[in-house]
Amino acid sequence: MAGKGVFEEIIDGDVYKYYADGEWKKSASGKSVSIINPTTRKTQYKVQACSQEEVNKVMELAKAAQKSWARTPLWKRAELLHKAAAILKDHKASIAECLVKEIAKPAKDAVTEVVRSGDLVSYTAEEGVRILGEGKFLVSDSFPGNERSKYCLSSKIPLGVVLAIPPFNYPVNLAVSKIAPALIAGNSLVLKPPTQGAVSALHMIHCFHMAGFPKGLINCVTGKGSEIGDFLTMHPGVNCISFTGGDTGIAISKKAGMIPLQMELGGKDACIVLEDADLDLAAANIVKGGFSYSGQRCTAVKVVLVMESVADALVEKVKAKVAKLTVGPPEEDCDITPVVTESSANFIEGLVMDAKEKGATFCQEYRREGNLIWPLLLDHVRPDMRIAWEEPFGPILPVIRINSVEEGIHHCNASNFGLQGCVFTRDINKAIMISDVMETGTVQINSAPARGPDHFPFQGLKDSGIGSQGITNSINMMTKVKSIVINLPSPSYTMG
Ligand code: G3H
């Protein structure tokens, strides 16, 4: 149970504590931040509103702890991560309960998120042992003008303190996808969870605490973005920022110092359906891709671009599947659950009303109760409608009918976003040609966009992000290359 049993020490009264110096603490601010349950729209949890002084202290601790962590053998770092992964999985029910209550994630998906997170942590430990256990050896005589008198040994070293800022939709999984690579690479960690999702993240952090990581190495501060948001991202003690979220990331990248940034900032993933596509396969993926977790995934299908000749047939198939989606509370494991906040629901409604005014065809009646929005397919969407370009982050899916593949590619590439896209066709040659010209970080052929499996490279072009994630890429991104050059007194060639 959340806040009970082994999790009792992370709560004081009805306010969850923050984590620093290996201990659960109350903020000296005496203030808290409320977390509203998207389903009941009542306060579900409260977390500490940490102050800037507390952030300063955490940074100091993280810096000191990192020095000795970097000297901890790699196999020991991996061992602790494996331990944390196992504890995390053991406590999947309590953490999933928080995900259900604070972000309205359907119950089964909430459990899946925690299990996936444990697997991610273990895989990262194994991958880290492999890739950080290797370096490079270079000799100088391959470059013109040099004899073989210099040997260069290069290896990967940690960056220092990594600031991890995950989003509300995966507060556990997209936190550990930053935490585990940072730790295996010898960095320390400051986590700033999103407000909705903070309590799930605090429970996850407690699993790392129970695994026995050194004091100060992992820290988690909660609070108002207006008080500690910029303060954290511009803090001189931060050596790397890994952020997933909305366009706040663009602002962060403008303000951050000369440090490596890893950013994933959303998408408007296009699904191009050609005349020769398997329409049943396409429809199934459009519904899964567009409506899982009520469309609140950066990799959700956010616009369908279908050839006019098969559009009627595809829309009918998608409509039939949408009709089968269950709508209701996350506790009942419904497919469509309330969106995360009232302001999100209002934003989504604004897009729907704009499409209505401009003449889109509503395949279902628009229905909303509080934060709960029924799934809606909008046909005959045109480029002058906001929904053609903007990311609803809700269960609303526009269909644009196209007369040529080029028209579809043009729409996809005219977007500011470039996260993923997908193409449905039985012609693999065409699929490759289209994938090559789509300006997105990944193109899925005959399947909906998705980040996983978690070791695959995951990256966005344009406003969708900076850098590449996925386990291997994240470990590499959280390291620097260090070289040691051995200068020989005279050239040394091999036998002969
Ligand atoms: O919301 C952004 C996530 O990175 C998407 O992950 O494709 O596993 O749902 P997912």
From TrEMBL:
SUPFAM superfamilies: ALDH-like. Its main location: cytoplasm. The active site is at residue 264. GO terms for cellular component: cytoplasm. Pfam families: Aldedh. Residues 24-484 form the Aldehyde dehydrogenase domain. Gene3D superfamilies: Aldehyde Dehydrogenase, Chain A, domain 1 (3.40.605.10), Aldehyde Dehydrogenase, Chain A, domain 2 (3.40.309.10). It is found in: Cytoplasm. InterPro entries: Ald_DH/histidinol_DH (IPR016161), Ald_DH_C (IPR016163), Ald_DH_CS_CYS (IPR016160), Ald_DH_CS_GLU (IPR029510), Ald_DH_N (IPR016162), Aldehyde_DH_dom (IPR015590), ALDH-related_metabolic_enz (IPR051020). Its EC number is 1.2.1.9. The keyword Coiled coil does not apply. Keywords: Cytoplasm, NADP, Oxidoreductase. One of its GO terms (molecular function) is glyceraldehyde-3-phosphate dehydrogenase (NADP+) (non-phosphorylating) activity. It catalyses: D-glyceraldehyde 3-phosphate + NADP(+) + H2O = (2R)-3-phosphoglycerate + NADPH + 2 H(+). The keyword Membrane does not apply. Important as a means of generating NADPH for biosynthetic reactions. Belongs to the aldehyde dehydrogenase family. This is NADP-dependent glyceraldehyde-3-phosphate dehydrogenase. It comes from Phoenix dactylifera (Date palm). The gene is LOC103710477.
